[in-house]
Amino acid sequence: MSNPAVSVVIPVYNGENYLRLALESVIGQTFQDFEIIVVDDGSKDSTPDIAQSFGDRVRYVRQENAGVAAAVNHGISLARGRYFAWLSHDDLWAPEKLSEQLRAMQSVDGPSVCYTDVKFINGEGKVFDEKEAPLPDRNAIVRAVLQGDPVLFAAYSLVCDLRCFEQVGLYDLKKRHTQDADMLLRLARAFPFVRVPEKLMFIRDHGKRDSKSPTFAAEASAFYGLWLDSLTPAELSESNSAYARAMSRKELADVFLVRRTEPWTGLARAQYRKVLSESPLALPAVFGSLFCHYFNLPHQFYRVGVRSYLRKRFGN
Predict the structure, then answer these.
(1) What is the three-class DSSP state of 298?
(2) What domains does the chain contain, in order, with CATH numbers?
(3) Which one is predicted more confidently, 149 or 206?
(4) Is the peptide bond before 280 cis (omega within 30 degrees of 0)?
(5) Which of 5, 185, 187, 188 has the fewest beta carbons under 10 Å from its own?
(6) pLDDT digit string (tens) for 252-283?
């Protein structure tokens, strides 16, 4: 038997509510040259029965509970395809997803990463929101992910050449909540990205995702801190100006400051200190952000000035 073009890895833990739907969305693809690898991360419900009910269409493997990163890595180690794709057990694919992504990747020489725009569904599968995820310039992708631009959602729909992992490594086992964003950032530094501007990925929000976990904030704070500190000059700004780079970092810090709770505000303050070390000329802008934060004023108060703000707020 020849190897498939794509290896689809589905990590799952206690996924009896949605796993069948996820599998059916993969099996229903218009592009059919793929294998499905379901990695059961120690489920205690009927997940094994559901996965195995698909017969030869699904390769089912089980491991002791070790987290999503370990489950995906297990799937990668078993993959026989040229391309890797993954699907959370509670999300869905549109029928054209794989075919459109593989077509788009043909325009790039060498290994690349492809993603699609997304729709958000609730627990019953009804669409309640959708996002377009424009592709930033190559050097701007890392900064865009860190500041929460829609390209961050590429982590859910990505398809990449399996060889990419030889260069960037596998998913980080130490990360239980931020492993997807971390992989997206590592791939962004190493390979070109391609966007399919169609909403072919359905992300389910049912209140039980890792981002709702009480341990998410602590891990995410450390994750963002490390990545923000590692930004290269080119990733901060196309300009060679230290002031331009400092102002770019200041904009990143603003993203975390407006969350108004720890650990995010502490993360913002640490970045403001780096801003000033990069260019003291950024002091007025940093002061404006902190002033608006501590006095609970909108940021445009500083940007447009007191008179302009009052005129817009209250009229002449």
Answers:
(1) coil
(2) 6-212 (3.90.550.10), 231-314 (no CATH)
(3) 149
(4) no
(5) 5
(6) 999 999 988 889 999 999 999 999 999 999 99
